[in-house]
Every structure is written in structure tokens, then in C-alpha cells.
Write the C-alpha cells for this entry.
Amino acid sequence: MTTDPSLVVSEVFGPTFQGEGPTLGRRAAFVRLGRCNLDCHFCDSAFTWDWDRYDPAVELSERPVDDVVAEVEAMGVDRVVVTGGEPLLQQRRLQPFLDAAVERRWAVEIETNGTIAPTRATIAAVERFNVSPKTSNSGVPQDKAIVPAALAMLVASGKAAFKFVATEVSDLDEIGAIVDDHDLRPVYVMPEGTDAATVTERGRALADAVSARGWHLTTRLHVLLWGDERGR
Ligand code: SF4
């Protein structure tokens, strides 16, 4: 276990509600870590990694784990969502935070793009992984976005749900191929969009086809409530 006491943080916010996936609507704190190993063109958190558009000196800070734990504790939550960017880039640094969360009986969700295998210690500490593999609509080459060994470890954890961003029904064939190739279950499809009208319209367009494949549909609650406002 590491003794490194800090994390590269983009923002800590809440209490708010998990906006996507299997725990949608659950009250939670969010810890958004800095940096990502992908560069999806639809990314709604590019301020964590896109240094052509944002200044890392403004967007990121190296914060002691104890400070982050104290900020979450002050929110009075029983759930914390660790997101990014790609939080597993800091998996070694994250362990002291996960240890503190386990001590406090917080349910921990890690949101990951599925390209980095979780360690056994990470798996033991979390309630769930919300894994969002990126299809070609992200603009990321598939040999970079899909890492079979990492997906296999996430499947084997027994704690993963797989959430795919879609803009239209024709995206579902590609999602289906990835799901079948890597035996991913359960599958959630989420409409891409950063305003309520787009998310609702695309969700309606996708719903019947998603159900026909035996998959789940998730909306983006925070977008319906607050658009693309940061820190909500
Ligand atoms: S993996 Fe997630 S955080 Fe990284 S660029 Fe893609 S959408 Fe953004």
C-alpha cells in the first residue's frame, strides 16, 4: 500500500445526486480527479485533461488525501463517486482515500473508461465500477479505447456495470459487438448530450431499441436538472 498522501484533484462537490447509471438518484459526494488517457470529442469534463483549452494550473490541484476526506465527511453522505478524467490513472495514490472510505462505511463508486485494470485492493474497497468503454463515436481509435485485459478484470470483479454513450440507434450495433466480444453485463445505454432537450430527445429515440436488446437505459439526471453547470 502506498503512503503517498495526495491526489491530483479537479473538484470535490456535493452533496448532490448520482446522475447516471445503476445508482441514478442516489445522494452522494463527488471527487473528480485530474487527467485522462483518452480524448473523447464529446467529453463534458475536458477541463480535467485538455490543456489546449484549459490551464492545468487553474484546473488541478494536488490535495492531501486527509483534506479530501474531510471535505467529503462534512457533506454527511454515505456514498462517494470517484470520477474524472480517468481516476484509475491515480490508482496507487487513491488507495489511502479508499481505505478512509471503507473505515467510514461509505459506498464508493469509481467511474472509469475501462482501459486500466483495477487492482485487487481497489476492487475490495469499492461497491461498484461504472465502466464507460468508448465506441468510435468518441473519436478515440478503438485499439486505444478498448483494452481487453482491463475489461476482463472489471468483468471478473463482479462489481462492474457497463455504460455506453449513444447518439442514435445505429450506434447500438457497435456497442453490441463490444458487449459480445468481452461478455459485458449489465449494459446501460446513455444518450449523449449536455442539455435537457438533447438528452430527452435522444433517450426517446433510443429507448425501444435498447430494450429490444435486453439492455438498460439511463438518462443524465444532472443534465436534466442543471444543464452543463459544473460542480452539480
Ligand atoms: S474517457 Fe471520459 S474523461 Fe476521458 S476524455 Fe473520454 S469522456 Fe472525457
Summary: Strands lie at 6-17, 27-33, 61-64, 79-83, 107-112, 128-131, 160-166, 187-191, 216-217. Residues 36, 38-40, 43, 45, 84-86, 113, 134 surround iron/sulfur cluster (CB under 6 Å). The CA atoms of residues 192 and 198 lie 8 Å apart. The chain has a mean pLDDT of 96.
